[in-house]
Amino acid sequence: MLEMFEYDFMQRAFVAGIIIAVLASVSGTFVVLKRYSMISETLAHSALVGVAVGLVGGFNPLWMAVLFAIISAWLIEYLRSAFSLYSDAVLAILLSGSLAAAVIIVSIGGAFNNSLFSYLFGSILSVSSEDVVTIAIFGTLSLGALLFFSKELYFIAYDEEVAQTSGIKVNFLNFLLVSVVAVIIALSIRVVGSLLIGALMIIPSVSALQFRVGFLKTVIISLIFGLFSVVSGMTLSFYFSLPSGATIVLCVLVIFIISLIINRK
Amino acid sequence: MKFNLPIFDIKNLTFIVKGQRILSNISLEIFRSEYIAIIGPNGGGKTTLIRMLLGLEKPTTGEVKIYGKKLSNFKEWHKIGYVPQRASHVDSSFPATVLDIVKMGRTSQRGFFSSFSETDKKLVYDAMAKMDILDLKDKMIGTLSGGQRQRAMIARALASKPEILILDEPNTGVDAASQKNFYALLRKLNKEDKITIVFITHDIGVIADDIARLFTINEKAIICNNPKQLLSCQEMSELYGIDAHLLHNHKHEH
Predict the structure, then answer these.
(1) Tens of pLDDT along chain A (265 residues)?
(2) Which end of chain A is more exposed for a tag (fewer CB within 10 A), N or C?
(3) Topology annotation, domain A2-196
(4) Three-state SS string across A111-176, please?
(5) Closest among A175, A150, A190, A254 to A19, alpha carbons compared
(6) Do B95 and A213 touch (CB under 8 A)?
(7) Yes or no, beta carbons of B93 and A217 under 8 Å apart
(8) Which of A159, A164, A215 sits opposite B95 (nearest CB)?
């Protein structure tokens, strides 16, 4: 079992994976409660544009992914509030547009297909020490922001208008939440991949909600599910030579199905 | 009752959206400890007016002042408790106990880097006691009846220790027995705790004895300083599509 930790790349992948599991499951709870699940998919595709720009332009792809995901998150919030557009339509438009932009950029740059593939589906082999440090720093800041405003974000998720009339800065906190989610998604695509990170963010929270307990317990259950999925997924990935992101997502899917069965009415 | 400054001072308020005039030139004042009922036909602009008082909508023209301040300069939102129309309808899977919901009422008043204090806790428990839901505090909000949810939402509003309570038809989906208790509670909050109450309702006949003034909103506003007299006012029926005789009978049925 511990044989895999003899490899440096596995040590790095586990550290990065555990940080991402914590970030994705905690932020995912707020995203799900705000009926905003699709934002994770859209931001993951926007992060991919950043990766493409990084690969073609010679910049750090992870940093560029963070930058583009944040810009996309702000654009989503702006379009939602400034125009009479349905939220899901805004997300669908930006998702398709981002993917198209990423493909065009990579196509123009050429010869980056293998690198891009690892960002699409995740690769534990590709997690560098620099990535781990970046994930740890930005992850701590993101988690800190979420925990600091957790009561306000919880109130907003329950009833945005009443939260606003009680004096809570709803617009600021909505922007903060999507920004933090953007950062978390961009950090995660190294390990889980942009096509699969949405699942790691949403499914643990949806599974936890099946237990119908209070908010704090829901977050804790979501956290346990996220951590279990990442650890078991990476372990299976190592011993059976499976793609890490897909294996993690299948593990969390199994948890979801079990949660549904256990909590069947 | 009117020798103090108005809490809400609304002047020449007009709201036009997509070419449709919702409110026209409305001016009114609401004073401390008043119990105001707002009636009018559906689509007449009652909820829009309330949303403007709360800063949720911006008027096309006109001005709203709270405690003498423009809405944009007003910071003491904890003085206002708001119970929206959909109060008794909640997402049954939302992970919240009754205690979680009532604690939300204290969220905006916690300081930076501070959690809920003993004072917050006391106000939350006092609000639950007042609404008689202490025994429900650990129940999930989605498992409660409409009347119990309504009481939880009002407890949340009371936890902020408001001076004004604004309620937008909170009785939707609530059974008749719970409604009766609810009206008694509003009376008590107004008479004993001196909380100003602004209440959108269709059940004007039931609370006619409690209210100080009645605002009838149907794009324009008619202010009635003697609600009992208004109940028999034929003019109101004709102008605003509200059957005053039905309202009158409704009162006696209860």
Answers:
(1) 578 888 888 889 899 999 999 999 999 999 999 988 899 999 999 999 999 899 888 888 888 999 999 999 999 988 887 887 788 888 999 999 998 998 888 888 775 666 777 888 877 777 889 889 989 999 999 999 999 999 999 999 999 999 999 999 998 999 999 999 999 998 888 888 888 888 999 999 999 999 999 999 999 999 999 999 999 999 998 899 888 888 999 999 999 999 999 988 6
(2) C
(3) ABC transporter involved in vitamin B12 uptake, BtuC (1.10.3470)
(4) CCHHHHHHHHHCCHHHCCHHHHHHHHHHHHHHHHHHHHCHHHHHHHHHCHHHHHHCCCCHHHHHHH
(5) A190
(6) yes
(7) no
(8) A215
Cβ–Cβ of A165/B80 closer than 8 Å? Answer: yes
Which residues span the domain enclosing B140? 27-253
- pTM for the model stands at 0.87
Could you tell me the residue ranges of all domains in chain A? Answer: 2-196
**CA atoms of B104 and B170, how far apart (whole Å):** 18
Contact A168 B160 (CB under 8 A): no
In the three-class reduction of DSSP (H, G, I as helix; E, B as strand; rest coil), residue A68 is classed as helix
- Name the residue facing B96 among A163, A208, A214 (closest C-beta): A214
Q: Which residues of chain A does B103 touch, with a Cβ-Cβ cutoff of 8 Å?
A: 151
Q: Is A166's CB within 8 Å of B108's CB?
A: yes
- Kindly state whether residue B7 falls inside one of the protein's structural domains: no
Q: How many domains does chain B have?
A: 1
Q: Determine the longest span between alpha carbons in chain A, in angstroms.
A: 56
**Total residues found in chain B within this entry:** 254
- Closest CB from B77, B94, B109 relative to A165: B77
**ipTM given for this complex:** 0.84
